[in-house]
Amino acid sequence: MRFVIVTGMSGSGKTAALKMLEDDDYFCVDNLPLELIGKFAELAGNPAQEYSKVAVGFDSRSMLRGHSVEDFFRTMKPYSYEILYLDCGDQELVRRYKATRRIHPLAGTGRIEAGIAKERKLLEPLRLRADYVIDTSDMLTRQLQQEIGHIFLENPGEGNLLLSILSFGFKFGIPSDADLVFDVRFLPNPFYVEELKHKTGNDKDVQAYVCQNGEADTFLQKLTDLLEYLIPKYELEGKRQLTIAVGCTGGKHRSVTMANRLNEYFETNGKYPVVLLHRDITR
C-alpha cells in the first residue's frame, strides 16, 4: 500500500493535490483529527482491506485542536508513509487569500501575513522531513497536475528520483525550491536583437542565436557530465526529487533555451522521470 500525507501551507494547493490523487483512484481523506489519522493508517494497512493507494490531508488546523507536529510524528511512527509538502511564497499566499476572501486559519482577527508566518514556523519540521516539496507559487493547475502525476501516478513505487528542470529570470528572484542553480547569462543575449526580443527560447531562431558560438554546447556537455555524477549521489541519500534551476536575466531566452536542451537530454537518456517548467517566460 502507498500511504501519502498531503500537507503544507494553507492556500498552497493541498486540496487540489488531493483531488488529483483521488482522480487516480487514491482513497483520499482531508482534515482528519490527529487522533483518527493513526487509526485510519492502521485500518488502511490491514491486509483484509483492499486499499492500495491512500492519501490523507494534514495541516495547521490540527494545531488549533491542541496538537503539534511532534504529536503527528509520534502517531505515525509505526506506519510506513510518504510526505508531500505543498509550499508557496508569502506574497502569492496573501494574493490568493485576498482573491478568495477567505480567513487564514491561524490569522484569527489579525493580519493574513501574521497567520502565514505563524503557520510556516509550525510546519517547518514537516517540510524538513518531506519526501517531496512542490512550490506552487508560479504554477498553473495543469503544471501541478503534471508534477503530481510524475511523482505518484505514472511510476508509483519505483522510487525513481524526479527531475524538475526550471528556467527562471534572476530579476524575479531565485526559485525557493531550487536544489541546483546554474547561471547562463554568459551566453549571447537575444534581448538586444530587435527581431528576437519579443520571442522566447521556445523559438528556433532564438535557440540558434543563443547557441551560435559553441559555448552553449560546451556548457551543456559539462553540465550533463556533472549531473550524471551528482544525481546517483542524491539518490543514495534518499532524495526523491531534484529541482535544477537554469537562470538568465529575464527568464525568457537563454534560460528557456538551455532548460529545453537539458530536458531533451534527460528525456532521451530515459533514466529519470523529468518535468520541464518555464517560470518567467510570460513576464
UniProtKB/TrEMBL annotation:
Keywords: ATP-binding, GTP-binding, Nucleotide-binding. GO terms for molecular function: ATP binding; GTP binding. SUPFAM superfamilies: P-loop containing nucleoside triphosphate hydrolases. PANTHER family: RNASE ADAPTER PROTEIN RAPZ. ATP binds at G8, M9, S10, G11, S12, G13, K14, T15. Residues 163-281 form the RapZ C-terminal domain. InterPro entries: P-loop_NTPase, RapZ-like, RapZ-like_N, RapZ_C. The keyword Signal does not apply. Residues 1-154 form the RapZ-like N-terminal domain. It comes from the Bacteria. GTP binds at D59, S60, R61, S62. It comes from Porcincola intestinalis. This is RNase adapter RapZ.
